[in-house]
From TrEMBL, chains A, B:
Protein name stated in the entry: DNA-binding transcriptional regulator, MarR family
Matches recorded under Pfam families: MarR_2
Transcription regulation recorded as keyword: yes
Organism for this UniProt entry: Hydrobacter penzbergensis
Record carries keyword Zinc: no
Gene Ontology terms for molecular function: DNA binding; DNA-binding transcription factor activity
HTH marR-type domain boundaries: 11-140
Annotated TM spans: none
Keyword vocabulary terms for this entry: DNA-binding, Transcription, Transcription regulation
Length: 144, 144
DNA sequence: AAAATTTATTTGTACATACAAATAAAAAGT
DNA sequence: ACTTTTTATTTGTATGTACAAATAAATTTT
């Protein structure tokens, strides 16, 4: 049913291959984080806030490599779910995890682990490490 | 200003790195195809139809590794721009390029070339080839 | 001190993508 | 021949993301 990326006429184009891979990985990640009813992005934002309570949107944008506006949107949703609260003073905003978020932390860690195990078992232990390193290196080169 | 992927706390996670890369590549591709006022996806779909007039949505979905519903949406937009026409008979649909699309073909090829040149100059000739091959290989492994 | 610039965040809007359900036609089974 | 199942496509709806503009506060310049 589902076609291999290598069978496509566009298998040698970076746009095509990187987005095809990202979609596959995202789909896999979605399944893992479904059990906590969060998208991977929301989950990673939440984990960042749990590790550094009070973190500001700007820093979150850098950490997660997303635009500030996207961060605002992600926070809004987490706020609706009562997982974070925002306090604004002056032009700065701080984002804090709620007790509910803290309760969720073990489960979040479990999702990370599950996801990691899943792709490692498919790609291979050594190769996944190498691959992720390569991805990071190339992404860095593309940083303007 | 813009942070490197390797500086993120999540630089060792496949979800994070693959989506960060895809976003950067997509941004770069967007710039290239702006001159023909198309997103990369629309452009690739159009090129596929130009190379094989009458191609059906199902095959396009496979080639481009997108879902059928996404293909329908992309076609709708290209139809609005008078770049393709759809003819439906029975349960099958054929997508054909218009003369306007054919006129655009050289420019499209130019975009592909420009994009390719751009990322090759950043990543390096040999390394981009190797990298795209790796991406394809891993994407294939992730195919369910 | 007042004005101009820079910085941090949010809002309005648009877009690519997907899932689930709806159509509708073709193929297979009886 | 009629019913069931499968296949192809589209529609309704939702989501993550980004850009450009709007706020608004802090900093710098004059």
């Amino acid at each position: 049913m589902s076609m291999k990326t290598s069978d496509s006429q566009y298998a040698e184009c970076l746009y095509f291959t990187s987005s095809a891979l990202a979609r596959k990985v995202e789909k896999m990640a979605n399944e893992c984080w479904k059990q906590v009813d969060l998208s991977p992005s929301h989950a990673y934002l939440l984990m960042a806030v749990l590790e550094e309570p009070g973190m500001q949107p700007g820093n979150l944008a850098e950490q997660l490599q997303l635009t500030p506006s996207t961060i605002t949107r992600l926070i809004e949703k987490l706020e609706e779910k009562k997982l974070v609260i925002r306090t604004t003073e002056g032009k700065l905003t701080n984002v804090y995890p709620t007790p509910k978020a803290k309760d969720l932390q073990p489960e979040l860690r479990n999702c990370v682990h599950e996801f990691h195990t899943k792709y490692t078992s498919i790609i291979g232990k050594e190769e996944s490490i190498r691959f992720v390193k390569t991805l990071t290196k190339i992404a860095d080169k593309l940083t303007d």
